[in-house]
Amino acid sequence: MKKIWLDLREWNKSLVTEALESGVDAILTIGELVADIRDLGRIEVIAPDAGDLKVPDDVEIVVIKDKGDENRAAAALKSRMVAVRTTDWDIIPIENLIPQGGERLFLFVRNLAETETAVRILEKGVAGVVLETHDPAEVARVARFIKDLDRESFSLERLVVRRVATIGMGDRVCIDTCANMEPGQGMLVGNSSQCLFLVHAENLENPYVAPRPFRVNAGAVHSYVRVPGNKTRYLGELKTGDPVLVVNSRGETEVSFVGRSKIEKRPLLVLSAVDSRGVEYSAVLQNAETIRLVGTDGVAMSVVSLKEGDTVLGLVEGGGRHFGMAVDETIREQ
Predict the structure, then answer these.
(1) Among 305, 291, 302, 288, which Cα is nearest to 169's?
(2) Assigned CATH topology for domain 157-327
(3) 8 A C-beta contact, residue 83 and residue 28
(4) Can you list the pairs that 11-17 forms with residues at least 24 positions away whose Cβ atoms lie under 8 Å?
(5) Where are the alpha helices (DSSP H) in 184-234?
(6) How are beta strands 311-316 and 300-302 bridged, if at all?
(7) What is the pTM of this model?
(8) CATH class of the domain defined by 3-149
(9) Cβ distance 218 to 238 under 8 Å?
(10) In whole angstroms, what separates CA 151 from the centre of its chain?
(11) pLDDT of residue 333 exceeding 70
(12) Measured between alpha carbons, how far is 12 from 134 in angstroms, rounded to an integer?
């Protein structure tokens, strides 16, 4: 995930406030300003002596004027993060440095246009940018662009329901997030990491309980759930503050965070469905009218009314998972 740092050498409360509100990852500053920054909110500070990360021990700043400066940056990249400023916006040194430690390389930029270039150099880009600006609006623009880079998008598939059957009591997980979800949004959950069903948020009116648009009643504790960074987690291990991936019926995603995870004994059912190749997958969900999957038309469908032949949306992927990360090996989960 690419990062954005704000360069702050003179006190500017508006810039710091915007950095906090826009989700800037860190502020690169001087020692005299560290206390003032921390008075406004919690954010990582990079500074000599008083910073969470120290300059130059953790982060070295290099101005590249010639090949010698480039070599110094390359040497530093072996052991620490390096923030580079080039003269006349010369990207050749950056192209040379990215293969030598691009995951620790940051580049000073002045605006969104330079940011867009920085993150695409050699199709890989730098690890992040250090924004030099006096305009809070530019902070917001660049931060939004950087955060959107990590927004995943999926091609959801049509799955045909084959069976819905009750299986008795078990531990199910409600994920209460720190943001409200819209109709059509939910989370990808399933018994197999190779196929995750889109489970709809509890944000629809019903005669039983009030809508809770921040909640996905996701399924049994053993189930996989998709999280940011092309990873899965077990539902039962999620806790407050963990990032989760909210997905809509078009496969568009956004990151939310767990505010509370509720594990309770509830009656369960197992749903099985097949993909276009006839491969069967399943999910274990709570047996209740308010638990819904998403149909191929984007409309929520209660699990208690699902029947053979109905179609729902899911994410089908090859390979398997090891500690939540995709691996290129055959894993059979049944």
Answers:
(1) 288
(2) Endonuclease - Pi-scei; Chain A, domain 1 (2.170.16)
(3) yes
(4) 11/36, 12/134, 13/40, 14/136, 15/133, 15/134, 15/136, 15/139, 16/40, 16/41, 17/136
(5) none
(6) unpaired
(7) 0.80
(8) alpha beta
(9) no
(10) 7
(11) no
(12) 8
